[in-house]
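Narrative summary of target 7.
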Amino acid sequence: MHPGFHCYMRTYDMVHYGHSNQLRQAKGMGDYLTVGVHTDAEIAKHKGPPVFTQEERYKMVRAIKWVDEIVEGAPYVTTLETLDKYNCDFCVHGDDITLTVDGKDTYEEVKRAGRYRECKRTQGVSTTDLVGRMLLMTKAHHSNLDNPDYQQHTDNFGKGPKGHSPWTGVSQFLQTSQKIIQFASGKEPQPGDTIIYVAGAFDLFHIGHVDFLEMVYKQAERPYVIVGLHFDQEVNRYKGKNYPIMNIHERTLSVLACRYVSEVVIGAPYAVGKDLLDHFRVDLVCHGKTEVFPDKDKSDPYAEPKKRGIFRTIDSGNNLTTDDIVQRIIENRLQFEARNQKKEAKEMAVIEAMKRKEQQEQSEAEAQAAH
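Modeled conformation, tokenized:
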């Protein structure tokens, strides 16, 4: 039996750093965090078809470092019975409205019992926003490199809020050093640790990345895994289209939230060279089964670790790529759009009802004051 609390996180389309941030906040409210993850059937009933299977979502949530335990197939409506069953003092949810298919607040019962707490939503990211950014990818003009929009694609790093790249939808996320500190482990490598370096885009952090990082983590008895993240411009150079979907700031938090990662290099050089290997005292460099794109000068970015005999190719057994995810979402596009319109209409109705109630209370109060 664990002291602690229960937090239900609705991991429908994907698990992103906004959800991780809610889990981080929830963990800070108690000492043991249990997360309920819904089945595909349950999500389809209330939200529309999920992009990821329940198995993928269970694994994603387990990989977030603030989670102590997950409940598979958690009910959509959180009841006191559920909290008691898993020995939880209270449940936590984001400060957005959650309604069942028939428009009821899914947290009504626990709120009445005083066993509900709220954490803040992360500004600038939502599943809907990310899906929107992916849907932009279907626009043909991205394949036209001479397009002036494309020429504007300079890095999102260090730009003002108006200067986002023309296709990351509108990422309103503002990175602060405080947020990085909250996500970072803050642990330095200890004597006897094996320092493992991996590099990439890690865009739309997903189950393929989790499986790869878990395999990397298993390469040593005491692994210290450093992830080098390439700047947006670099990612676009080798990935093309309108990649990356998430900018460098968002990708930093996504990777830091993973329990297999100790440290992140923000804006790592594309070639894994002598300076980097010496600076971090790297013992092993790993890369997945995906294609290694040559550097700008056509050289192999892994030439140095190969020369030192510390390069290893890892087969994670999962060949899911960011491209595959974008494809899944685009195929689901019409269902998503229908779902989002329905969700918006439902939320607008709630807001309208709340406004009406407020106006009514106000006019009643005014009438009483007049007496």
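Residues 5-119 form a domain with the Rossmann fold fold (CATH 3.40.50.620).
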